[in-house]
Amino acid sequence: MEAPVVHLRDIQTRSKIFTIWEKQRNKKEVHWFMEMFAETLGVFFYVYAGLSSVTGFVVGNILKQPLSSMMQIGLAYSFGILFAIGVCGATSGGHFNPCITISFVVFRGFPPSKAARYIFAQIVGAYLACLVIYTEWKVLLVDCEAILEQAGQLDALQFTPNGPAGIFGLYLLPGQTLPRVFLNEFVTDTLIGLVLFAAIDPTNALVPPVMASVLVALA
Q1: Residue 10 CB neighbours (<10 A)
Q2: In the chain, count of helices (H) and strands (E)?
Q3: How far apart are CA 45 and CA 215, in angstroms?
Q4: Dihedrals φ, ψ of 200, to 5°?
Q5: Cα(207)–Cα(198) distance, integer angstroms
Q6: For the chain, first and last CA: distance in Å?
């Protein structure tokens, strides 16, 4: 005898607003927006978590007051990705990265028009996270610039991983070239894609479905 299925609505009355929303959210005209919102929110989750730790690391080093560490940065990004997958993955499929979306277009027949919407949403999520972090840390970032300028190091460090501007963007370091940067990004994104496809492969007995999000977050 199968156990009876009990739905929450059978024992608890739902608010009218949620009932109305449930009727609308899966309509074609609305669902595409929900998918974009999920991609935006998912990217916001891990960029906000990871970049906040990066900001603390850079600011702490300049102020000589440790606020973060390389370990914390890695864990922040990993947990941010776990949160993104757990909260938003069921709605949009959990791409959260243009390289993953492009990979799905090339290898999985993902619709190009939908991919364009996803990539736009991902970029918006990243910029929103950067905007929030900059607003939260602005006072300390200005202090850091003043300290570096007083020490005569602002011009040398501003657009490097150790400077305030380097928190929010990647800039070419002295001696680096665009082809080398492209190679770095290509190899990194390829490895992430391989791990992702291995994690969601139903024939991969070494990665049960419940561990897929963990494996992807660690990558």
Answers
A1: 8
A2: 10, 0
A3: 17
A4: -100, 5
A5: 8
A6: 43
- Which helix (H) or strand (E) segment holds residue 60: the answer is helix 28-63
Residue 3 CA from chain centroid, whole number: 39
Structure-token match 């949403």, residue found: 121
The model's pTM is 0.84
Per-residue model confidence (pLDDT) at position 48: 95
| DSSP summary character for residue 27 | S
The two structure tokens encoding residue 218: 């660690």
Tens digits of per-residue pLDDT, 205-219?
888 888 888 888 887
Give the max Cα distance, the chain: 78
* pLDDT for 66: 85
Task: Return d(Cα 219, Cα 216) in angstroms, integer.
Answer: 5
Between the CA of residue 164 and those of 47, 55, 56, 138, what are the distances in Å?
A: 16, 8, 11, 10
The structure tokens listed for 109 are 């027949």
